[in-house]
Amino acid sequence: MKLTLAEEGKEYVVQRIDINDEELSAFLFSLGCYSGEPITVITKRKKNCVVSIKDSRYCIDSQLADAIVVY
Predict the structure, then answer these.
(1) pLDDT digits (tens, 9 = 90+) for 28-41
(2) Which of 5, 17, 40, 70 could disulfide-link 12, Cβ–Cβ 3.0 to 4.6 Å?
(3) Taking CA 58 as the corner, what is the angle to CA 7 and CA 61, rounded to the nearest 5 degrees?
(4) In contact, 2 and 65? CB cutoff 8 Å
(5) Quick check: 43 and 50 in contact, CB under 8 A?
(6) Which domains does the chain have, with CATH numbers?
(7) What digits encode the pLDDT tens for the residues 7-16?
(8) Degrees (nearest 5) of the Cα angle 19, 17, 11?
(9) ∠28-33-55 over CA atoms, to 5°?
(10) Is the overall model pTM greater than 0.85, yes or no?
């Protein structure tokens, strides 16, 4: 399931990142968002999503959230 479809307040595990941009992939990796890591959606809005990764909160846009596949 894509992160944009995830429920608020529920913890998921990143399965994979579906993105062809090496720079964005490296950016997500630097945030701690990679396969096997837990991620929690704090809030969702139309154009962005606030997530918690490794005890830090980040605001990512919906296009980037759509590239993160979780289970």
Answers:
(1) 999 999 999 999 99
(2) 70
(3) 70
(4) yes
(5) yes
(6) 3-70 (2.30.30.90)
(7) 999 999 999 9
(8) 145
(9) 115
(10) yes
